[in-house]
Amino acid sequence: MKLTSWGRYPVIESEIQAPVTPSELRSRFTAAASIPCIPRGTGRSYGDSALAPHAISSRFLNHITGFDETTGVLRCGAGVTLAELLDLFVPRGWFLYSTPGTKLISVGGAIASDVHGKSHHLEGCFSNNIIELTLMLGDGEIVSCSSETHPELFHATCGGMGLTGVILDATFKLRPIKSAHIRETTFKAHNLDEALTLIEAHEDTTYSVAWIDCLSTGSRLGRSLLMTGEFIEDGRLDLKRGQPLAVPFDMPGFLLNRYTVTAFNTVYYHRVRQDRSEHIIHFDPFFYPLDSIHDWNRIYGKGGFTQYQFVIPKEAGREGMAAILSRIAESGRGSFLAVLKAFGKGNDNYLSFPMEGYTLALDFKIDQGLFPFLAELDHIVLDYGGRLYLSKDVRMSESTFKRGYPQWEAFQEVRHRYGADRVFRSLQSDRLGL
Amino acid sequence: MQKILIIGATSAIAEATARLFAARGDRMHLLARNHERLETMAKDLKIRGAESVTFDAFDVNDFDRHPALLDAASVVMEGIDIALIAHGTLPDQKACEADFLWTLKEVNTNAVGTISLLTDLANRFERKQQGVIAVISSVAGDRGRQSNYVYGAAKAAITVFLQGLRNRLHKSGVKVLTIKPGFVDTPMTADFPKGLLWAQPERIAKDILKAISASRDVVYTPWFWWPVMVLIRSIPEPIFKRLSL
Description:
The complex is a heterodimer of chains A (434) and B (245).
Chain A: E1 2-3, E2 12-13, E3 15-17, H1 22-30, E4 38-40, E5 54-57, E6 64-67, E7 73-77, H2 82-89, E8 94-95, H3 107-112, H4 120-123, E9 130-136, E10 142-145, H5 151-157, E11 166-173, E12 175-176, E13 181-189, H6 192-201, E14 207-212, E15 224-231, E16 245-246, H7 258-271, E17 276-282, H8 283-287, E18 293-294, E19 305-313, H9 317-331, E20 339-343, E21 357-365, H10 370-383, E22 387-388, H11 398-404, H12 408-417, H13 427-431
Parallel strand pairs in A: 3-5, 4-5, 16-18
Antiparallel strand pairs in A: 1-2, 6-7, 7-11, 8-12, 9-10, 9-11, 13-15, 13-17, 14-15, 14-20, 19-21, 19-22, 20-21
Helix pairs in contact in A: 9-10
Chain B: E1 3-7, H1 12-23, E2 27-32, H2 35-47, E3 52-57, H3 66-77, E4 82-85, H4 93-98, H5 100-128, E5 132-136, H6 149-169, E6 175-181, H7 201-213, E7 218-221, H8 225-234, H9 237-240
């Protein structure tokens, strides 16, 4: 069947298997000639990391098999989504430690992408709270790994884009909460300098992210709204109810252009009046504002879109960010979902994206000329010692990847040792020379 | 809290429905073929809020064992309020055309086994003068088509059997619900290209729960299959036989 991911580019022909038990999956790998494949969760990575001519869906490996009410340690199948976990456990007083901007992803996907969230500067990535995970290797063998047992396999699998094996289940800690509500403070930053100063000033707040107007220039370059948040403790553990809206059809791509995006950004920025404002907000709109609009990827039209997310080290900070932002603003390629965040320290996973510094994520409609433009940005990012997020990528070159991820050889070595390199392959891994 | 027996519990639709029962804190007893899956599913339902979950592995074609299995279910849950029958296979139509033994096996699984279970359950519920019997039939049973008439015939048998049963049990206060799903995205259909007519098991499960609470007789799920099937049934046979459906 036709298969694509969140960016809706590319679309390929793929055969999908959705095993219901590990034993059913195993027969695939013990067959004489096993065909290369890639594990896949909900298909929320943007590019081609979960695309291959043969894919294994974790959709039905979706059981919760253990939960300790006192410690919050949970064990569940790779196909369970974060949304499901929140529906079940928020009313019981538990939340996730690290959550990205969508809850519509699977636990397996969260591990393979080693996702990060608004708390990265204090709490690191999703893998940070994993106690153990179970993996099916390329020969059908099932291995448990953690930072203590088979640590190299663990560090290759977290952030490993599904290239080490099929994640079957994971055991990880949930965060105790006393309310489903958050005190959100919004700060207005008139330019990039102010934004970065504000971010630094609030680095002790658990959640912090900035929306940035990437089309403003000159003295207003990098004007932003910084949103910080902390769970409150009022005892309300309710879930947000109500049907999500939906984008029912592909919008004509031309509706998104520099004028409409500039207008949107201006309104969005000026909607906030004071330099500092505070209110209580439910966790759902705070963490997952876009999940309330189903299929929002359709606003970019039939041709699809990509997200360009890079990180540059803290030392390169202001200068690097200003250089890249100027280049984007100058190009007029608008993105109304531009997100700026400060990362804390990186971790030991070979291909995990975050490193201490600043990350910026921008959506771009795919059109002629976009990829050459992004290749130009790649050069600036690499020159500042940065790299790109594999889960968003659909086009970076092998050399861009290898420069940005110096541990790629160690990763390959582990893959090879566990017999994964010939079995688990995606369009992305082929492109990146993995 | 209700006591719910689920037969064919590991089917995607049954499992999605079981999760909704679990969220209400119901008590469940599960029957299905695969022990490994039942074990995992029972753990999962407990964590999702079920009061208790027990299970037995069984083969629906082992008709002689049915009464003992239903006895055990009734004992372990201290009664049965709702029985959901959801087992089924999707036959290989071509194989059935070539070999009657295939057809026999498929009809046994999809119709005869169900009728065996229903016969026993109906008598139990009739004696108690209460309960709900909910059975998953299919829109495929509404009209025979060349692409899957063996499956369709088995489901049609179930649909008619349930009509009669509903008529018989009405005076005893026992509810009989016929559930007719359309195309559902299950492990069996993982690789089918899915258009607008396809629904997720979770969606079907919600409709089943609603239909049970509303004491419906027949429910098409998702709802649009009702007008679709009205239309398909209304095509005169001389025309229908020429279509490639």
